[in-house]
Amino acid sequence: MGSPRWARLDRIIRAGHLYTGLFLVPWMMVYATSAFFLNHDDWFAGSKPVWTDVADTKFVPDDSFPAASEERARTIMKQLNLDGAHRISQDDDKQMVIYRFCATGYYQITWNRQESRLVVRKQQPCTFYSFVNALHYQHGYSQPWLAYLPWGTWALIVDLVTTSTVFWVLSGVYIWARRPRKRLLGGICLAAGCLLFAILALSLSR
């Protein structure tokens, strides 16, 4: 491979390393900040939200009420003006429990069949700690794409973050390898990091 081709590849790798990093700055800050919060969870005990009752209404379904769990959940959430991304954690003869995703605090919707009641609780108050952690845990493609587009878009960007992280590592190694004057110091850092990781991984596996 000639020098001009190497120079062209250098420009492509550096540009990719730079611009994907700039585009993903907000997401990387979210994951870095929330990882710090989770690693020092005890420091932020006063910032954790608690479940607070926000609604308690009578609910008696009519003959048009669907039989399928997912359709029932959608019907209940629409009645409460809370339609959106969610998961069903319980659905039996006694009650249905739905968790409605929201970055400012999840909603817990409980339909008590025997008492014909809908009880809605929300995680409050919304703090920077709870907001960042809620964004950290958003993932997956389980929600209908068109109905909940923001969540699907977020899932796509999570994939972009993970693949970009691998690219940053590999491109960083490439950039180091292309700088002869930095190879000794860079090689020491690379070897030390890999060795420390191996020692810790083996220790944690016992």
Task: Give a structural overview.
By secondary structure, the protein is an alpha+beta fold. It folds into two domains: 3-43 and 150-204, no CATH class; 49-126. Helix content is 52%, strand content 17%. The protein is built from six helices and five strands, in the order ααβαββββααα. It has helices spanning 3-23, 25-39, 69-79, 128-136, 149-177, 183-204, and strands at residues 50-58, 86-91, 95-100, 107-112, 117-124. A five-stranded antiparallel β-sheet has the order 1-5-4-3-2, covered by helices on one side. A hairpin with a 4-residue loop joins β4 (107-112) and β5 (117-124). The longest helix is centred in the C-terminal third of the chain and has 29 residues, at 149-177. The two termini are 47 Å apart. The mean pLDDT is 90.
Rg (CA only):
24 Å
Helix-strand sequence: HHEHEEEEHHH
- Read across the widest sheet, the strand sequence of neighbours is 1-5-4-3-2
What structural class do you assign from the helix and strand content?
alpha+beta
Shape: elongated
List low-pLDDT spans: none
